[in-house]
Amino acid sequence: MEYWNFFKKKFYRPLRADSNIVGFVCMTSDKILGSDIFAGTNLFYGELQPMLMGYIEEAIVFGGSCSVADVQVRKYLDQFLKDEKQQEAFVKKNGKLYKAGGKVYHITTY
Questions:
Q1: pTM for the full model?
Q2: Domain ranges of the chain
Q3: Torsion of CA 48, 54, 55, 58, to 10 degrees
Q4: What are 32-84's pLDDT values in tens digits?
Q5: Exposure check for the chain: N or C terminus, fewer CB within 10 A?
Q6: Which long-range contacts (C-beta less than 8 Å, at least 24 apart) are formed by 8-14?
Q7: Farthest-apart Cα atoms in the chain, separation
Q8: What pLDDT score does 14 carry?
């Protein structure tokens, strides 16, 4: 719970959640564990605790001090955020894409 409390302070402002955050990339040691990105803040904050708890557990068990560079994160994100066709191909092999009414509302990658 200590890690959750640390991140909770980062994600939540007093009285309301940050309206600019819709996802995150999780990393530990020298690797990116995955990402979860939502279509809006309501969806994101509704799922934040259970998602983050899973990543926290994985980082505690298999991780260490983070040494992932910003350039690695950008390269990772570019694989599925540049265009929809590329996104579907990447996520088909490395995650899951959730749609409703023909629109993507959640992307999870690993």
A1: 0.88
A2: 2-109
A3: 170
A4: 999 999 999 999 999 999 999 999 999 999 999 999 999 999 999 999 999 98
A5: N
A6: 8/49, 11/45, 11/48
A7: 41
A8: 62
Report residue 46: phi and psi, to 5°. -70, -25
Tokens 């540049």 correspond to 82
**At residue 21, what are phi and psi to the nearest 5 degrees?**
-100, 125
Full 3-state SS string of the chain: CHHHHHHHHHHEECCEECCCCCEEEEEECCEEEEEEEECCHHHHHHHHHHHHHHHHHHHHHHCCCCCCCHHHHHHHHHHHHCCHHHHHHHHHHHEEEEEECCEEEEEEEC
What is the C-alpha separation between 65 and 16, in angstroms, rounded? Answer: 30
The contacts of residue 94 (CB under 8 Å, 6+ apart) are: 80, 109, 110
